[in-house]
Amino acid sequence: MELIDRFRAGDRRALARAITWVENGRPEAAELLKALYPLGGKAHVIGVTGPPGAGKSTLVDRMALGLRQRGQRVAIVAVDPSSPFSGGAILGDRIRMQRSLSDPGIYMRSLSSRGHVGGISQATGDVVAVLDAFGFDTVLVETVGAGQSEVEIVGLAHTIVVVAVPGLGDDIQAIKAGILEIGDIFAVNKADREGAERTVAEIEMMLDLGHMGEPGLNRWPAEGPLPGGPAGYQGLERLDPTGHHKDVDELPPGVTAPARPGGGAGAGGEGPGGAPTAPQGPGGRHGSVAPGGISWRPPVVKTVAKDGQGVEQLLDRCLEHLQFLRESGRWEARQREDAQARVQDLVARLVARRVLDRAAAAGDLPRLTEAVARREVDPYTAAEAILRRHFAEPPGRPEEPIS
Ligand SMILES: Nc1nc2c(ncn2[C@@H]2O[C@H](COP(=O)(O)OP(=O)(O)OP(=O)(O)O)[C@@H](O)[C@H]2O)c(=O)[nH]1
Ligand SMILES: [Mg+2]
Question: What structural domains and CATH numbers belong to the chain?
């Protein structure tokens, strides 16, 4: 395919075309994604989420520029930028991200949630995959943290920055069950406003109390409150020269210890039925303890996106989180989980389509659904009949209806 050759050669127009195909679910898109797959798996995907008007676009713009200055190739995906705060939706984002847009080293794409057959999740995931394959080092994905979107970003991003703003007060309590619990890093933006310190303190307190997320699933330690102490990457400094983890007693104050013995390699993963078990190994988002006793406490960073303050610190934390993911083994675990989820999802969709197409062609589907509507047959029996036939009889034409 000619497009793929141009894509591989780094042609921006080929990239734009590829994204449009994927976004619109064109039939060529599947072939394209197949061909591009071997090229991907390298980009650091950073999700930036938070309430409407928190300054996500402004922050993403600054982050992109900062990463460019660090020599990175950066792509931005703004998902459904349609909050009333920005007024003109995509147009608003274009204005907010002006600085990035004037840098040819930054690629920006807005996706609207309208009109995606497979859902915005699917489309965004595929667009990110295309950008990854193109060779961007970092893909920044902006989503409004409301409803389903925070769930989508968890599956999509390696690192999630939750943007909060001062003055939410009691609202922090209200939203904590939603977007606060998914944060790997917190940015208290609009720190030029009053109350930033208080918001930082409130978030820190919730982290300390372990109120955010299931204990042992997203947070550590598995039981009891978090010890206070330095946020972020508690990594190599806790390893002695032999590479073994130090005993708890030897740790300097404030440094996090493993939640319980034996929480290293092999202890992670899921309990029966995917129930959270503590401690989590590389499978968890933050996990209690990774091999080598490496852990992550979500740091809280103050930013003023409109003039760039705190953005360098925020980027440092993002890169540290990436380092944490790699050294704890979570990056690799994540690749496997994603691979499994993708294959299972595709098998389910492909099988469903084949079975339904055949049942429709044979006339079984309309006949059975009609019977179900009249309550002559129940839906379970109807579905089982269709499946039984599909898997019992080799496909052949012409199809005779189920008798
Ligand atoms: N005072 C102050 N205003 C800011 C800061 N960052 C952004 N803003 C302003 O906040 C408003 C919203 O900024 P956006 O970047 O569009 O926020 P957003 O979270 O992307 O908004 P939606 O995508 O509509 O949810 C704009 O008027 C920005 O100029 C900041 O650090 N301080
Ligand atoms: Mg925005």
Answer: 2-330 (3.40.50.300), 331-403 (no CATH)
